Amino acid sequence: MSRAGEGVAHRRRRSDVTGRFYCVECGEYWPCAAVADRKPLVLFDVDNTVGCGLGGLNGPCCEPRPGMSLLMAALFMLGYEIRLWSAGGAEHAEKTAEQCELTDFITGYHDKPDYPIQADAVVAMFGCLPVLSIDNDPTERVEGVPFVEVSDYWGRHADEIEGIVMRRG
Ligand SMILES: [Mg+2]
Ligand SMILES: [Zn+2]
Asked: Rounded to two decimals, what is the model's pTM?
């Protein structure tokens, strides 16, 4: 039997014979042991969601969104697994988490799949669908995953960025 590790998709399907749900991957009745053992996954975007997004690999330090560390600590203590993903790549996600001092709560860093993001690609990446996705960009919503859209967080650069956006029209 496969565990619900990276790249292993445990998905339920209803049996035509018994009418009960079973796991397509390992054949056990649903929820299979791999799914039952697994902590529910909460997925966070990186730039302008967990932090200001201006802490590039060689750039200035990323500022964490106020309250983010409290939110992650609470989710962590309630038994959720927290992962970060970023179109800027896994390394950028991890670097940002380090700068924002959030790494104690996070178990993995990932690149985002190709757009538009498909549920299958997400399952292939995590082995399950997240129970919640939190992002500043509503176009990154994944079908079948509850979604919370947060406002863009720019940190102390907010005025500067607003100015840049306004000048660019
Ligand atoms: Mg973002
Ligand atoms: Zn299974």
From this structure: 0.78
The answer to whether the CB of 34 falls within 8 A of the CB of 10 is yes
Spatial CB neighbours of 5, under 8 Å, sequence gap ≥ 6: 127
115 CA to centre of ligand 2 in angstroms = 28
How many angstroms does the Cα of residue 2 sit away from the middle of ligand 2?
7
CA of 22 to the centre of ligand 2 (A): 8
Q: Where are the domains of the chain?
A: 1-38, 39-167
Instruction: With CA atoms as reference, report the closest residue to 95 among 51, 131, 154.
Output: 51
Which tokens belong to 130?
């997240």
Distance, CA 21 to ligand 2 centroid (Å)? 11
Residue at 105: amino acid letter: F
Homologous superfamily, domain 39-167? HAD superfamily/HAD-like (3.40.50.1000)
Per-residue pLDDT of the chain (169 residues; tens, 9 = 90+): 444 445 567 888 999 999 999 999 899 998 888 888 889 999 999 999 999 877 654 556 788 999 999 999 999 999 999 999 999 999 999 999 999 999 999 999 999 999 889 998 998 888 889 999 999 999 999 999 999 999 999 887 666 665 555 544 4
Q: How far is CA 102 from the centre of its chain?
A: 14
